[in-house]
Request: fold
Amino acid sequence: MTFKLISKLVFRNFKSLREIIVPFVIAISVMFGLEYILLSLIYNDYLIERNEFLPKLMKYANVIVGLLVLIFVIYAHNFVIKRRKKEFAINLVLGMEKKHIRLILLYELVLEFLVVSLLSIVLGYLFGNLIFLALNKMIQNSGVSIMDYPFKIEASIVLMLFIFFIFVILYVISNIHITKQSPIQLMKTEKAGEKKTSRLVILILSILGVISLIYGYYLALTTTGIMDSLFTILIAVVFVLIGTYFLFMSLTFIVLKILKSSNIYYNKKHFFTVSGLMSRMKSHVVGLASITMIITFLIVTLGLSLTTYRGIQTQVDHTQKYDYEMSITVFKEPAEVKQLYDELTMNKDVESLNMTKSLELPAIDNNGKIDNFNQLNKPSKSTMMYMIVRSIDSHNAYYNTNLNLDDDEILVSSNTKRYNKNTHFQFLDNDSLKITYTDENFLQSQIAIDALYIVVPNETLYKKFQSYYIDDNSSAETITLAFNAKDDNAKERLDESVESFEADTQLPIRSKEEVKKTIYELNGGLVFIGVVVSITLLVGLFLIMYYKQISEGYSDKENYEIMQKLGLSFSLIKSTINRQILVIFGLPIVTAIIHTIFASKIIYTLLGLLAINDIKLFVTSYTSVIVIIMLVYIIMYIITSRTYIKIIGKK
Reply:
């Protein structure tokens, strides 16, 4: 076969299959364009010089997005190959050899590779300019311009290597399909659904699915702390994933069989809908379960991103109370601390100066009895916690309060809803201590895991805590020196003086502006990654839905033509199709929302890692995300269902 003939066949295929190939090329170009953006940010000199965290975060995000792109491209390509098996079979029957088909596929993939590479790099660079500016706005970098986002050859080369790697995989998969099957098998495969599943298998799958789903929900609802949630969420996701697939593979058939045995089935309005659903579900339940999980991950990821973005400023306000703070942990107060304190006392630009001491103690929650962390060799993740202990004098100085406590009374505050006024605590193996619990969260964003803030009334009790919770009866104290600037002008002068303070005393003094910059860099980067992953999931979702409808359309076309020949009007067929599509695509979005509702507790708990504990912020963010995704999903449903009906209605 000559190169000229192969070229003609390839371009004829592109023309006749444009409804399949064009969306495939555009969709994967968008995905690879997102990959280019992440790669360009990794190699961007502006970010490398000014931000410590972002390039590292982009590397992790690049791995996640790369895996998603690989999965979605292979998934969509399988739909394309399945649609073309009849074409391959006819060519083989007409005398073409399998090596010729392999040459045609190779030629097609080479052209697609060139087009996709060009589109993804161009689109990625153009859209990357906007993304770059948006990212810098998220992390509050001022003075940035488009000139700081130059075209990166390194990113283009890495991207093209990645695209080449995926297209090699696609070519290998295509060859496997062609090599393993005869022309007759290829003809049958296009319309072949899944084999009929036995009742016993359906029953076993439904039982396992229910058990897995209930256990996954149970884990999500019963986690008690941040650390517990961090370790539990992956296990819960696995069980919900298994439960979703098993229930879609079994429960849908059970429900449809129940409907088939009822009077509903024999109603003219529902007869074709139910029978059509039974035939369609057999071969597409796995795809529906995949769509369900993609929507779930999309809601969770986008919801986390929105909640985190809205909560960044709150975290900044809660992380550091004063304009400047110096904290060191030592066994004995060094002379440099006293020197710095004296210098700041004499400085007229300084106000609200205080020096406080505290104990930072890892501990174990043994059902309300707070034990030494080292008393157990392997403490459970759900029992791990932290304590900050301050004397009443240090507390009043730092928070500028006038708290009074009795000699046997301690004040307890917490950064988690896990502990409330009904919690019974026992410290120092002493049940006689009078414990006052306050709703005010004094810890705010200081510690990311479950923690207690304890105020003791005197130095004696302070020393008891110090000796009881450390094995060697000695503990390093954390000395905190905090102060504010009197006004904006004083703050400018102090900003200049802090460097000399640090050089003279060798003590690290952090300003609130530095803390703010770090938090915006880290959280802004996390939000950006969440948005990129969400866009990838969204494009992948559309890709799966679109090719699912095309595949089903061509598979069902012949059946509906027979129905029309038997006397059914196209309007009745169209209304039947709409009801089927509505049920099929309504199931994933409803199931995904149910998954999200059950996962809301563990997601909210995990947001404690970012010191976000505003329930109103969390609920409004996730409600907005669910509404937006439902609207986008409806648009996708309209576009893909019209494609399906258009295929069915072709003469």
In short: The chain has a mean pLDDT of 79. The two ends are 34 Å apart (CA to CA). Strands lie at 324-330, 350-366, 369-372, 384-391, 409-414, 434-437, 451-456, 477-485, 510-511.
